[in-house]
Design a protein that fits this description.
The complex is a heterodimer of chains A (about 220) and B (about 800).
Chain A lengths: L1 E11 L4 E12 L4 E5 L6 H8 L7 E6 L2 E2 L5 H11 E4 L11 H11 L4 H14 L15 H13 L5 E5 L7 H16 L3 E5 L3 H4 L4 E6 L2 E7 L2
Parallel strand pairs in A: 3-8, 3-9, 6-7, 7-8
Antiparallel strand pairs in A: 1-2, 1-4, 4-5, 9-10
Chain B lengths: L1 H14 L1 H29 L9 E8 L8 E3 L2 E2 L2 H8 L3 E9 L3 E5 L2 E5 L2 E4 L3 H4 L4 E3 L11 E5 H8 L8 E4 L6 E8 L12 E4 L15 E9 L5 H6 L1 H8 L9 E7 L10 E2 L10 H28 L1 H13 L4 H38 L10 H27 L3 H5 L7 H37 L9 E5 L2 H5 L1 H10 L3 E7 L9 E7 L5 E10 L3 H4 L4 E4 L12 E5 H7 L15 E4 L7 E6 L14 E5 L7 E6 L4 H15 L8 E2 H8 L1 H35 L1 H9 L4 H35 L10 H28 L2 H6 L2
Parallel strand pairs in B: 2-15, 7-12, 9-11, 19-24, 21-23
Antiparallel strand pairs in B: 1-2, 1-13, 1-14, 3-13, 4-7, 4-13, 5-6, 5-10, 8-11, 9-12, 10-11, 16-25, 16-26, 17-25, 18-19, 18-22, 20-23, 21-24
Helix pairs in contact in B: 1-10, 2-8, 2-10, 2-20, 8-11, 8-13, 8-20, 10-11, 13-20, 13-22, 13-23, 15-18, 20-23, 22-23
The chains are: A alpha/beta (about 220), B alpha+beta (about 800).
């Protein structure tokens, strides 16, 4: 599903040049659950942003479902992104002014789903995430675990093929964290490909494969399943 | 999607109440001010628009010898209409108009005073499209002694009776009988010609008027062929005048020019003796209003832009999330633009309410009958369109800016506080304050000039003078009235004149016979009772005042200094004294007159005008138009009662009317005063809106720098340090604005003051004071937040990060 080769990303300021990704090669197959680990500054978040089509690489190739997307312009990237990729963030990133229901509904609006269809799909995922009873609440009224479940619901409501999770349990206590990990595992079992950046060895154990990075390169791959 | 935007917009606005209130309130003020100005301007532009013919007013430039400067007058001569019609094929028709003094009519026992009767040619209703309600348009003004009444006049005179064919007589004096031939619609407010009745010119024309070249006592309107080349036509007028005024050589003193009907109301600022020009208003002021309204709107728009971009920090996360889950840039831009449109519509609703509520006060101030017709669909639509354009203009930049955010960076918390953004914001703040300071300076000068004109010593004493109008009957009893009045207590002096101070005095050709050749000059003239100069405290600086001797009556002239200076050009004259006793008098008469004295110059007109040459003449037999009674100001009520008693004793059946001279002088400046008030209100609003904007910016700036302030405090910065740091940025901007505003204001004010013959000094301190005021207001506004931010506990702000 994903194949990147010789991917480079370099951040330049006036005086310093930081190599975030250094001729990186990674392949992820459809249905895989991959965890990316590594110390701060090793390039994992940069990688996730490029995989998520939020950022573009300076060099190298990125094949998404066989299509070269490395040099897509913003419009094309946005188009591809909204139909295929869901995001889960460490800090949830829910919109405070919208209710739980409205937050989850938002991606459907941007992909142009009709209002009638939206309702059933939003209710379906809210139900699945067990936060249906909270649908009229605003994010601030929820616990961290509940907020992250809303974020996961929002990520999956469009039925994306790929979910990118950036330290999804980073702001949660262990029981809430486990719940979220269980949700991701369930989704993976239903066929969604998941790439997750994490610092937690515990969380990484939910995945099939752990990629360890250092200084913009992969240093080790562990297959768990 | 729209619903989602709408929802989030409303919640967002509600959450940021301060921002919302500042924006909506500022925009509402700007829109309200603009709507009012728009109503005013469109009312001004609507003057005389109902008439469909290609009508021009014939005006003269008069440049007689002895006049300080040539003058444009809205007057012409009786024979001009018919001769112009016969000479020039491009002239299709003409009508002449003459306003009488108010007409005192009676219908049996009922006595009605019509303030404005116009004598007009039979063609009047051919040129002008005033709506005739009863009568045949072609006939009603055909015969002498015909009168056409307005609906209102007819109702007053005849109540519900059929007025057609009824006769009316003047209450006093010669007994012209008028027959009512038609009823015309009441004259609309936006007509420069105002009348209660029209009577045929032939009623009052004397045979000698037909060839009276040189007598300017009426107004001529011409109907021209469409597409007439006005300039070419005007170029033929000198030859025309030469042809008809060859005998008297009068053509030397006249030029003729044509003024389109549409500009008579607003384009006649430089035309004097313009007696039939209702609510005459200089279009220059209308332009000033429009410019100021535009500045206010601009300031409000800038507020909006600044506050929206200043809030980008808060909105950036939302932008990031939306982009991540699939929003495209145009969708986000549309969302933000929608927000600004929603805000501007909310502002519009408030503005409409404000306008509706404040219209009575505005009408009082502007002396207009403005209305906001909420059923006038095109008007409302254009206001709505204007508002949306404003919303679009104010919202487009923030929308493009906010929607450009890179989601990765904003979600990581990287703040967009780029230098270039704040540079633009700063430039806009400078623009706002430059506008506000300009308005402060302009307002101060406008008010000072006004104050100056009203308090400036005009050279005579106008206090405690009661003016009583006379008509043909009562003026014959003037001497009796005067002696009766002087017997009463609290009446200090009594005099009379044919014209009132503070009006354009009539002009006459004068003849001076010194030792050289006879000189023909023109000067303003006023015919007075011998006590005139003493009642008004006008000092005689050479020669003597009038005496009550019979030898002075109809012979003695007193001239003003300006005239005396003019006469001193005579070769043998060296000082004012040398003019005394020289032969002088009205040009038309075989003069047996002489110069008895010279007065110090006094402003017999408003201070818009320079002092012209003046001849004061003592002539008891010609009758007076007004009595001036100087009373004891401490016992005004008693004095007025005594005047009224004396009047009743002398003129039993005549009504007693009076006014105060100083009120008349205040009225002269009504237009100036209204302009002054309007401009100061607008300037106040501009400053208010600017400060609202600054308030908002300071608020966000303090919020944005909370962490920085915390760190600085931990490192030892005092409250004063922090306050100075936060305020300093804004103060710098206001200082720059001041520097820009000064030269602009200097040129603007100088240009404006040039229109006044007597004007205030361009004091530097006003410029400095205006800058200081702006600075002070800005400082107060900003420091409120700065202090609040500075005294906050740093531990709190650092912990929340």
């Amino acid at each position: 599903m994903i194949k990147i080769s010789n991917l480079e990303k370099i951040y330049r300021t006036e005086e310093v040049e930081t190599v975030a990704l250094n001729k990186l090669n990674i392949e992820v197959k459809e249905g895989e659950f991959v965890a990316i680990m590594g110390p701060s500054g090793c390039g994992k978040s940069t990688l996730l942003n490029i995989l998520g089509l939020l950022d573009d690489p300076d060099a190298g190739s990125y094949l998404f479902n066989g299509i070269e997307v490395a040099h897509f312009n913003e419009r094309k990237r946005a188009e591809l992104r909204k139909h295929n990729i869901g995001f889960v963030f460490q800090s949830f990133n829910l919109i405070d002014e919208l209710t739980v229901y409205e937050n989850v509904e938002l991606p459907l609006i941007y992909t142009g789903v009709k209002a009638a269809d939206r309702k059933s799909r939003v209710e379906y995922v809210l139900d699945k995430m067990q936060i249906m009873h909270r649908r009229k609440h605003y994010p601030q009224q929820l616990s961290g675990g509940q907020q992250q479940r809303v974020a996961v619901a929002r990520a999956v409501v469009n039925q994306p093929k790929l979910i990118l999770a950036d330290e999804p349990t980073g702001n949660l206590d262990s029981s809430n964290g486990n719940e979220v990990m269980q949700l991701l595992t369930d989704l993976n079992e239903q066929g969604t490909t998941i790439i997750m950046v994490t610092h937690s060895e515990h969380d990484a154990k939910f995945s099939h494969r752990i990629i360890r990075m250092l200084d913009g390169q992969t240093v080790m791959e562990n297959f768990l399943a | 999607m729209i619903r989602n935007y709408f929802k989030i917009t409303l919640r967002n606005l509600w959450k940021n109440k301060a921002f919302t209130a500042i924006n909506i309130f500022g925009l509402a003020i700007g829109i309200a001010a603009s709507i009012v100005i728009m109503l005013f301007v469109s009312f001004e532009n609507s003057f005389d628009k109902v008439h469909s013919k290609n009508i021009y007013r014939l005006n003269e430039v008069q440049k007689f010898e002895g006049m300080v400067q040539a003058q444009n007058v809205a007057l012409s001569m009786y024979p001009m209409g018919p001769t112009l019609l016969s000479e020039f094929p491009e002239i299709k028709n003409f009508t002449r108009v003459r306003q009488t003094e108010k007409l005192d009519l009676n219908n049996g026992d009922l006595r009605i005073i019509l303030p404005a009767l116009l004598y007009v040619d039979s063609t009047f209703l051919e040129l002008f499209d005033f709506k005739l309600l009863i009568g045949n348009r072609a006939d009603v003004l055909q015969n002498p002694n015909s009168i056409v009444l307005t609906e209102e006049s007819a109702k007053k005179l005849f109540a519900d009776k059929d007025p057609i064919g009824q006769t009316l007589k003047k209450f006093v004096g010669d007994t012209i009988t008028y027959t009512v031939t038609g009823i015309i619609e009441n004259v609309p407010e936006n007509s420069h010609l105002q009348f209660n009745a029209l009577a045929t010119f032939s009623t009052i024309v004397r045979p000698r008027d037909k060839d009276n070249w040189g007598g300017n006592w009426l107004i001529t309107y011409l109907e021209l062929e469409e597409n007439t080349d006005i300039v070419a036509l005007e170029q033929k007028f000198p030859d025309y005048l030469k042809k008809y005024m060859a005998e008297s050589e009068g053509w030397k003193f006249y030029e003729l020019f044509l003024q389109p009907l549409s500009t008579v109301h607003s384009g006649s600022a430089d035309i004097t003796h313009d007696y039939l020009n209702f609510k005459k208003f200089d279009k220059k002021y209308t332009a000033i209003f429009s410019i100021v309204a535009f500045i206010i709107l601009l300031i409000a728009g800038i507020n909006f832009m600044n506050l929206s971009t200043a809030r980008s920090v808060e909105r950036s996360r939302e932008v990031g999330i939306r982009k991540t889950i699939g929003a495209e840039r145009y969708q986000l831009a549309a969302q933000f633009l929608g927000e600004s449109l929603l805000l501007s519509i909310a502002a519009l609703l408030i503005a409409l309410t404000v306008v509706k509520l404040s219209l009575p006060a505005i009408n009082e101030l502007s002396q207009r009958e403005l209305s906001l017709p909420l059923n006038d669909f095109p008007l409302l639509l254009s206001i709505l369109a204007g508002t949306l354009i404003l919303g679009l203009f104010a919202g487009i930049y923030p929308a493009l800016y906010l929607s450009s955010f890179n989601p990765i960076r904003v979600l990581k918390g990287a703040l967009y506080t780029g230098k270039s953004k704040s540079t633009l914001r700063n430039a806009l703040v400078v623009g706002q304050f430059t506008g506000a300071i300009l308005l402060i300076i302009g307002t101060v000068f406008a008010l000072r000039q006004l104050q100056f004109m009203q308090t400036q010593d005009p050279g005579f004493n106008k206090d405690q003078v009661v003016i009583i109008p006379l008509n043909r009957v009562t003026s014959q009893k003037y001497e009796t009235l005067k002696s009766e009045l002087l017997k009463k207590a609290d009446i200090i002096a009594v005099t009379a004149a044919q014209q009132r101070l503070g009006n354009n005095l009539h002009q006459a050709g004068m003849r001076f016979h010194g030792d050289g050749p006879i000189r023909e000059l023109t000067s303003s003239q006023v015919i007075v009772d011998p006590d005139y100069l003493s009642l008004y405290d006008i000092p005689v600086i050479a020669g003597r005042n009038f005496t009550k001797e019979e030898s002075d009556n109809a012979r003695a002239y007193i001239i003003n200094e300006t005239m005396a200076k003019e006469l001193l050009e005579d070769p043998l004259r060296t000082d004012y004294e040398s003019l005394i006793g020289k032969k002088y008098g009205f040009g038309g008469m075989d003069s047996i007159g002489f110069i008895a004295g010279v007065t110090k110059d006094f402003n017999f007109n408003s201070l818009h005008h320079k002092i012209e040459t003046l001849s004061i003449f003592c002539q008891k037999d010609w009758g007076f138009a007004e009595v001036s009674v100087k009373v004891n100001g401490a016992k005004l009520e008693e004095a007025l009662r005594n005047i009224s008693d004396s009047w009743k004793e002398v003129n039993q059946d005549q009504p007693f009317e009076y006014s105060f001279l100083d009120e008349h002088f205040e009225e002269m400046y009504t237009a100036d005063r209204a302009v002054g008030k309007v401009v100061s209100i607008l300037a106040g609003l501009a400053i208010l809106i600017s400060c609202l904007g600054l308030f908002g910016l300071a608020l966000y700036s303090a919020e944005r720098r909370v962490k920085e302030i915390g760190i600085r405090k931990v490192l030892g910065a005092s409250v004063q340090n922090i306050t100075a740091m936060l305020s300093g940025d804004f103060i710098k901007l206001v200082l720059i604005s001041t520097l820009i505003a000064w030269p602009v204001a200097w040129f603007g004010v100088r240009r404006w003051l040039q229109d006044f013959a007597y004007r205030v000094e361009m004091d530097i301190w006003i410029f400095i004071a205006a800058g200081c005021i702006a600075l002070l207001i800005a400082l107060l506004t900003v420091s409120l937040h700065a202090v609040k931010a500075a005294v906050a506990n740093p531990v709190k702000s650092l912990r929340t990060e």
